[in-house]
Amino acid sequence: MIARLLLLALGLLYVKAQQQNTCELIEWTGGHYVWPNEATKNIYRSSGRYISRNVIATRAQVYRDEVYLALPRYKAGVPATLARVSLRQRGCEADLEPYPCWAAQEEGDSSSFQSVVDIYLDENQILWVLDTGVVNSLEAPVRKAAPKVVGINILTQKKVKTLDLCGLVVPASRLQYVVSEYAPDGRPFVYVSDAATRSILVFDVAGNKGYRVVLPNAVAGSRRDVLYIALIRKPVNNFLLITYLSGARFFQIKTDFLRAGCAAGKIQDIGAKGAKLVILGTDNGSALFFRYEGRPEVYRWEVGTILKSAELVYKSPENYLTTQAFPDVSRRRVRVLESNFHDFLKNTVGCGASQRVSLMISNVPQPSAVC
């Protein structure tokens, strides 16, 4: 009997070790940062600059064994708004390492990150970081700096470009999502959604110039709440899929038109949604992941087919909802970032929001399928 129990225990330990080796799941509560030293942590905590329960990750990207996280400064007490965690971490709690360093997180310093709301990793390992410049956005919003998009080469951990968005926004702007692509000639372009002005900001990185594309009234409908954008890659053309959370329909435009600055009349209506959908991300190809508002089920939809053909590919555990699905290219899998964000908004998270990064079923397409 004792021998059987020992074998069972060894078997469970082996399964747990295998799960860790395949990097299937990492999780943490609140903001468990890697501090330079204990004294620094105590200074931040005593001054109110570190309140663990006010930290939550809402967006993520992955490269090899590192997951990069956007930690918006929705509330006071978020010491670092951009961080990374290791898929090879050990122990119960994942450690948030400020990225690229602590110095880049200084609130009130216009050259540092103020509130990172979205990130996008391109095929050349440039992490594009959307910083609204507004902190405490859920409590008493304060603008600390101008909005910007920063490009970081994650291989060198160096900033390679800062895009000043001042000339493209208005005081009422609400910047929410960022994606990027490369033109056929190799020039990088960055696209940012501005929900309040019903616009897409287009930035020619190499040319250091940008412009604003105002979307048709039909895109917004009655409410300008959350303006989702997703880069859909097809064999011949790339498309930017566009929809509001409260919008009734999906729209798209060829990115050729966005890059050329001739988007007028080029936006296509591609169908009704039927309900409020939360857009989660893509597989780096032509598939879009989404969930219905308030629901834990994640669906995969091949854009261009009827929405009813969407396939159920994942379901978050109880009390969790997915905020992003993102490709893990090195493992040819898709990961999800999930949390009890709904409880965070209601201030009912106790010690902090529960957050996790886990694998879902869907595979990432081969590179040849997304060129």
UniProtKB/TrEMBL annotation:
Gene3D superfamilies: TolB, C-terminal domain. The keyword Signal applies. Residues 1-17 form the signal peptide. It is found in: Secreted. Its main location: secreted. Belongs to the major royal jelly protein family. This is Bee-milk protein.
